[in-house]
From TrEMBL, chain A:
The protein's Enzyme Commission number: 7.4.2.1
Pfam families assigned to the protein according to its UniProt record, in alphabetical order: ABC_tran
Protein name as annotated: ABC-type polar-amino-acid transporter
Organism encoding this protein: Micromonospora halophytica
Assigned keywords, A-Z: ATP-binding, Nucleotide-binding, Transport
Automatic annotation (TrEMBL), chain B:
Sequence similarity: Belongs to the binding-protein-dependent transport system permease family.
Organism: Micromonospora halophytica
NCBIfam families: HEQRo_perm_3TM
Superkingdom of origin: Bacteria
Upper classification of the organism: Bacteria, Bacillati, Actinomycetota, Actinomycetes, Micromonosporales
Record-given protein name: Amino acid ABC transporter membrane protein, PAAT family
Location of the ABC transmembrane type-1 domain: 60-264
Length: 264, 284
């Protein structure tokens, strides 16, 4: 696999490293041994048909799903466990929450807090979790909302915003925690086609600023243009991974070719 | 096809049936009300005489604060029970389930009488520091649990069981994505409950809790059985002496109806406020 290649090539500690990650829901094995490495500053797109396990794997990275086998590290720390000698100790809810602070996540259905304004959504976690003084958090939230092009919507409730605007607020909300890694779970799949562009533009800007991103997406254009690496998943394994040119341009596997024929 | 300059008269359907039934119902209602008013035992003068008597007003005040206290304690306890019921800890889940099972499964009247006679079950209430024998508190139960205390205990414990189910429903109605989004931001489960889940659950919880309050106001009448000093107790005390049962029940009914109307108006205002939040996709 490409694990060793990537680590030696970048010669830095990978932001995400997965080795043989498995996950099952009852009798159904959703992930059957995922190997993947994401270097700091890189954008990795996870592609694949629905049910291939790409969203599940993404949710494993910040421990929204518990893995059943294999090992998973974020920035050198095991996800969900602490190693002591030859034993793995499961982390307490508070410790899990602590590690999640550094990992931003954007959901397919935005999941903004509907009872809070856009600005209140963005400052909620910095104020309540990090203890940032309210005034400083507000100033920074205003900057972030401006960055995603919604400076004039700070006082609006999520219900008063379009899907694309809500998703951009959700990105600002995640960025307010100064994450070292951003996870995107099909961020444009619930949007009207004409709103997709605004969200992708924000994501391109983030990538250009050097944010480490793992993106589950069906936007092939985005993957081709922005991703450093692309992994094609099917049936709970990484079928093929490499640069967009390799995977999208000259797929080696029959399953990758069949998938790309359908979506392109 | 008619030309557009031509005016045509529209004749609506005549609802002769409606007129007939309306007439019948009005007639029956008039007969019924006249039968009531013609009864010599209604005694409007007696009703007027007792409606604003000070001990009746005292009873009204007691009924009001009994309702308020039982609802406050019931709601606070209900939140705790609901959270226990949804907890990952099987012991907490079980205890909460058992509490709700008992207090929802037995009549409120039985619970009120039970607390009224608590002294018969536990004669003394004693609190000692463990292993030292130091007595912090020791009194006969009947001195501590007076009729009023028993009334508050029974009403609020009963309310906790019902409120717990209403609040649990409200919490479950909040989209799971909300908890996930809070978790992904590094919020702890307790913070998520307080800042994200409960504020959204409120919209679902408020209307049934308004109904609970109205039910509670009327349920306080049951504490008259253990001399709870409420409105019903006051009225009963009077008619047990002067045998004017019907006029005094009318006095009580007028007060309950007035108080419930007030609560209904309050409920309408609160729901409108939360409905406004819903229209723009949020509370507040």
């Amino acid at each position: 696999m490409t694990v060793t290649d990537v680590t030696t090539r970048t010669a830095t500690r990978p932001m995400v490293r997965a080795e043989g990650v498995t996950k099952r829901y009852g009798p159904v094995e959703v992930l059957k041994g995922i190997d993947l490495t994401v270097a700091p500053g890189e954008v990795t797109c996870l592609l694949g048909p629905s049910g291939s396990g790409k969203s599940t794997f993404l949710r494993c990275i910040n421990h929204l799903e518990r893995i059943d086998g294999g090992q998973l590290w974020v920035d050198g720390e095991l996800v969900g466990y602490r190693r002591h000698g030859d034993k793995l100790y499961e982390l307490k809810a508070r410790e899990v929450a602590r590690r999640r602070r550094d990992i931003g996540m954007v959901f397919q259905r935005f999941n903004l807090f509907p009872h809070l304004t856009a600005l209140a959504n963005v400052i909620e976690a910095p104020v309540r979790v990090l203890g940032t003084p309210r005034e400083r958090a507000r100033a920074e939230a205003a900057r972030l909302l401006e960055r995603v092009g919604l400076a004039d919507k700070a006082g609006n409730y999520p219900g008063q915003l379009s899907g694309g605007q809500q998703q951009r607020v959700a990105i600002a909300r995640a960025l307010a925690m100064h994450p070292k890694l951003m996870l995107f779970d099909e961020p444009t799949s619930a949007l009207d086609p004409e709103l997709v562009g605004d969200v992708l533009d924000v994501m391109k800007g983030l990538a250009a600023d050097g944010m480490t991103m793992v993106v589950v997406t069906h936007e092939m254009g985005f993957a081709r243009e922005v991703a450093d690496n692309v992994a094609f998943l099917d049936g709970g394994v990484v079928v093929e991974s490499g640069t967009p040119a390799e995977v999208l341009g000259a797929p080696k596997h029959e399953r990758t070719r069949a998938f790309l024929d359908k979506v392109l | 096809m008619t030309s557009d300059t031509e005016t045509v008269r529209v004749v609506p359907v005549r609802h002769y049936g409606r007129w007939l039934t309306a007439l019948l119902v009005v007639g029956l209602t008039v007969l019924f009300v006249r039968a009531l008013l013609d009864s010599p035992n209604l005694e409007p003068g007696t009703v007027r005489e007792y409606l604003f008597k000070d001990y009746v007003l005292d009873g009204v005040v007691t009924t009001l604060w009994l309702t308020l206290l039982a609802m406050v304690l019931g709601t606070v306890g209900g939140v705790v029970l609901a959270v226990m019921r949804l907890s990952a800890n099987p012991v907490l889940r079980g205890v909460s389930w058992g509490f709700i099972w008992v207090f929802r499964g037995t009549p409120l009247l039985v619970q009120i009488i039970f607390f009224g006679f608590l002294g018969a079950l536990i004669p003394r209430l004693t609190l000692t520091v463990p292993f030292t024998g130091t007595v912090l508190f020791d009194k006969p139960t009947s001195v501590v649990v007076t009729g009023t205390v028993a009334a508050v205990l029974a009403l609020s414990l009963n309310e906790m069981a019902y409120a717990a189910e209403v609040i649990r429903g409200g919490i479950l109605a909040v989209d799971a994505g909300q908890t996930e989004a809070a978790a992904a931001l590094g919020m702890s489960p307790a913070l998520t409950l307080r800042r994200v889940v409960l504020p959204q659950a409120m919209r679902v919880i408020i209307p049934p809790m308004g109904n609970e309050t109205i039910t509670m106001l009327k349920s306080t009448a049951l504490v008259s059985i253990i001399a709870g000093r409420d409105l019903m107790t006051a009225v009963q005390t009077v008619y047990q002496n002067n045998y004017k049962v019907i006029p005094l029940l009318v006095v009580a009914a007028i007060w309950y109806l007035a108080l419930v109307s007030l609560l209904s108006a309050g409920q309408w205002l609160i729901e409108r406020r939360f409905g406004r939040g819903f229209a723009r996709g949020g509370v507040r």
